[in-house]
Design goal:
Elements: H1 4-9, E1 11-18, H2 24-34, H3 48-54, H4 60-65, E2 73-78, E3 81-87, H5 95-102, E4 107-113, H6 120-132, E5 136-141, H7 150-161, E6 164-167, E7 169-172, E8 180-183, E9 188-192, E10 204-207, H8 209-232, H9 239-243, E11 247-252, H10 261-270, E12 278-279, E13 285-286, E14 293-301, E15 310-318, E16 321-322, E17 326-329, E18 334-337, E19 341-345, E20 348-351, E21 354-355, E22 360-364, E23 374-376, E24 393-399, H11 405-418, E25 422-425, E26 435-438, H12 442-453, E27 459-463, E28 468-472, H13 474-480, E29 486-491, E30 496-500, H14 503-512
Parallel strand pairs: 1-3, 1-4, 4-5, 5-11, 6-11
Antiparallel strand pairs: 2-3, 7-8, 8-9, 9-10, 12-13, 14-15, 14-23, 15-22, 16-21, 17-18, 17-23, 19-20, 19-22, 24-26, 24-27, 25-26, 25-29, 28-30, 29-30
Helix pairs in contact: 5-6
The chain binds guanosine-5',3'-tetraphosphate (G4P).
The site of guanosine-5',3'-tetraphosphate has 18 residues, from helix 2.
């Protein structure tokens, strides 16, 4: 009989973060290939355009911009385990969304381009992971191309991210001469053979060290020197430090040619912790065997023009989920019948009949569900609050077609509930011209695109001079409202935000009038 504890032990739930183009999509695809979930014959892996629409990037805007905004969840088997891969947006402007997704994962893979090392967005997204205190596995990709010196890359990780990199695999050669990797733990050389565009698993050969030295010559000598150095400086894997986010196991490979893909998948099973009891708002863990509970970490509407509905993505935290069961929606206390429960991958939807801790279920038409909400059966639970990030960009938005005011309003509400942007309202202005607040400006593009395309309301987005926001209270707000250079607006989560044009002015105010409540909002890396 299946039970939550043993089912959780078989599961691994993780996300991939990377700077755009480092190879997240390719690696995801290869995971599916190795998991047997993607059956492709040689040469049938699709070109990028098709491939993007076939997997996770389905939104028109994403295709135009070549970025991934929306998150998808993929589930695939590997060895005798079930792997749940949660996609995160590939742009730092959506780091708030990434932060929420990471609330539902137990680890992340950080993909680096071997010729570029740490790029701007890798750092941002890494900081989000650090805030979430989740273990990070590093995959240094594109080793089939001329790459940086591997030791240099390790230094970069250590210095820039303050994370100790511990190579588990070590490359033999690079570029055209990339022959394979040494598995440091098993002390063996894994040599690969390329297949056309990596359409099938790369044939692997385990070669003993004496033969490798003979056959690989100079490349082998160089690789051994690297490993000796790692041994000398004591780069040894430590499970506890990995789980504490202090150390990252590093793998070298090439997602395109499949080199090293199996090793990193093995690491997901062997190193990444399985779902464990989640802590509630008071810090008390809810055991895996407790009655069913889940955490809503993403809400998404209109993902598919044919369906036009709204899906709340929920991670199962305890117990067993069974489609059709009636759960309680924590914040409203209302019952919700989970008649339509799905796993959603891009445009493919499949009905989910059963799920266990670590799995993700998309609940269709869960209209009142918001990010951070708890759902449960029998024993109530309240999850830790899901904080909103400090916005740094602001626009006033208005509809350009007043006959579409109703559509405009419902569009704004929808975007607000999904957390696409934060929506602020000034008491005297109300609904016609709300303020949109964002972590990064690309969020406005998404909002505008969706208002126009999904809700049929063309809008103008008027840039604003505010540059910094602070949380305040009613008493301080009354005082602030009389001052110039500051605006106070309500956010829909009930928070009162004071928006300042000048950070210097804000600083002065903080010094001169310390009695005013002006609290910093959470930002990544703080
Ligand atoms: P992303 O999701 O992180 O944005 O990156 P994606 O996987 O889309 O990869 C970006 C580009 O890098 C793609 O090339 C992809 O083929 C290539 N790539 C990914 N992994 C490797 C690798 O291990 N080695 C090499 N040499 N290239 C890799 P593209 O030209 O943009 O698309 P395509 O036409 O090749 O599909």
């Amino acid at each position: 009989m299946a039970d939550p504890r043993s089912e959780a032990a078989r599961r691994r739930t993780f996300a991939i973060i990377s700077h755009p183009d480092a190879g997240k999509t390719t690696l995801t695809e290869k995971f599916l290939l190795y998991g047997g979930a993607l059956t492709t014959g040689a040469g049938s892996v699709k070109a990028k355009g098709d491939r993007r629409s076939a997997t996770s990037d389905w939104m028109e805007l994403e295709q135009q911009r070549g970025i991934s905004i929306t998150s998808t969840v993929l589930q695939f088997p590997y060895r005798d385990h079930v792997l749940n891969l949660l996609d995160t947006p590939g742009h730092r402007d959506f780091s708030e969304d990434t932060y929420r997704v990471l609330a539902a994962t137990d680890a992340a893979i950080m993909v680096l381009d071997g010729s570029k090392g740490i790029e701007a967005q890798t750092r941002k997204l890494f900081e989000v992971c650090r805030d979430r205190e989740i273990p990070i596995v590093t995959f240094i990709n594109k080793w089939d191309r001329p790459s940086l010196d591997p030791l240099e890359l390790l230094d970069e990780i250590e210095e820039q991210l303050v994370l100790e990199p511990v190579p588990i695999s070590w490359p033999v050669g690079d570029g055209d001469k990339f022959r394979g990797v040494i598995d440091r733990q098993k002390n063996e050389f894994v040599r690969y053979t390329r297949t056309a565009r990596g359409a099938t698993e790369a044939p692997e050969e385990i070669v003993d060290r004496a033969r490798a030295a003979e056959e690989e010559g100079k490349l082998w000598v160089e690789a051994e020197e690297g490993i000796e150095l790692l041994d000398t400086i004591g780069r040894v894997f430590d499970q506890k430090r990995f789980e504490a986010g202090e150390l990252s196991p590093v793998f070298f490979g090439s997602a395109l040619t499949n080199f090293g893909v199996r090793l990193i998948l093995d690491a997901m099973v062997d190193l990444v912790p399985s779902p464990s009891p989640q802590k509630d708002r008071d810090g008390n863990p809810r055991s895996l065997e407790s009655p069913f509970s889940g955490l809503v970490f993403k809400v998404q509407a209109n993902t598919d023009k044919n369906h036009r509905d709204r899906v709340a993505f929920m991670r199962v935290c305890s117990g067993r989920f069974e489609r059709g069961m009636v759960v309680t929606h924590g914040p409203t206390g209302k019952p919700f019948a989970t008649k339509y429960a799905q796993s959603v991958s891009g445009q493919d939807r499949e009905t989910v009949d059963e799920a266990w801790p670590g799995d993700v279920v998309g609940l269709v038409n869960a209209n009142e569900f918001r990010v951070g909400d708890a759902v449960w059966v029998d024993e109530p639970v309240l999850w830790p609050e899901m904080p909103a990030f400090a916005p740094a960009h602001f626009r006033v938005v208005r509809t350009l077609d007043t006959s579409k005011s109703k559509q405009f309003r419902s569009g704004i509400n929808q975007l607000d509930e999904e957390g696409v942007v934060q929506v602020l309202r000034e008491p005297d202005v109300g609904d016609q011209a709300p303020i949109l607040a964002a972590v990064g400006p690309l969020q406005f593009e998404v909002a505008q695109h969706r208002l126009e395309n999904e809700f049929g309301s063309p809008v103008e987005m008027v840039p604003c001079t505010w540059s910094v926001a602070r949380a305040t209270d009613q008493e301080s707000a009354d005082k602030l409202r009389g001052m110039s250079g500051v605006t106070v607006a309500h956010r829909s989560d009930g928070e009162l935000l004071a928006l300042f044009e000048s950070p210097y002015w804000l600083q002065r105010l903080e010094t001169d009038q310390p009695e005013l409540r002006l609290d910093k909002l959470i930002a990544e890396g703080t």
